[in-house]
What does this fold into?
Amino acid sequence: KLRIVVDAGHGGWDLGTVGRRGLLEKDLVLEIAQRLGKLLENRLGSEVIYTRPDDNYIPLDDRAQIANQAQADLFISVHANYSDLPSARGVETYYTNFFSAPGSKEATLQNVDTSSMAGNLKNSGTPTLSASELHERTDQSRRLAASVQRSLYGTLSVQNPGLRDRGVKEAGFVVLTESAMPGILAEVSFVSSPTDEQKLQSDGYREKIAEALYKGIARYATSSRGVKMAAKQVASRASQ
It folds into this structure.
């Protein structure tokens, strides 16, 4: 039985992205997160923990700490994108690579080594992970991101011309760098796109996004043997 933390971005005073017609990212992602949670509970039999079950702002490091204290198996953060260009559309999924080379064009993480990353985990209340454990966590997060991205684009691009597959990317988001389990951050659409904003107003489209996220997570979970490794290691160390 997987324990999955579902994190709806922003909340409370933090509106997130605001669409041209007034759609608030914080409201959109909260509803999608709740829809996703129900699917994970009902279909996958997972235990779901929400970082924010309502319209409140939770500090980023607190979100990671919630996941660490719960000894969760997976961390899923739901966001919506923004661009100054109204034509920008598509979906993308992020994970943290703890071993990106400094200055790498592919990585947002720069000038950060594994020892400082391990320190971030320790400071957030999680035992320091070894290099091999960080490698495993990175690999699991990469595979989870790939599965979710494939599902998001594959599901939402149907009868949706112009939607771009923006791919899997690396970034050092706090909710990912300070959580001990495999985790991703999914940008499910561009609220700044008039085309997407209109679709996102629909309950049916929001449910389709939740379904896509669910399918990607479920596919990863059923194909992954080591999905509970991080949580077990944390539990083992905590008991020592």
About this structure: The longest strand covers residues 74-81. Confidence is low (pLDDT under 50) at residues 101-125. DSSP finds eight helices and six strands in the chain.
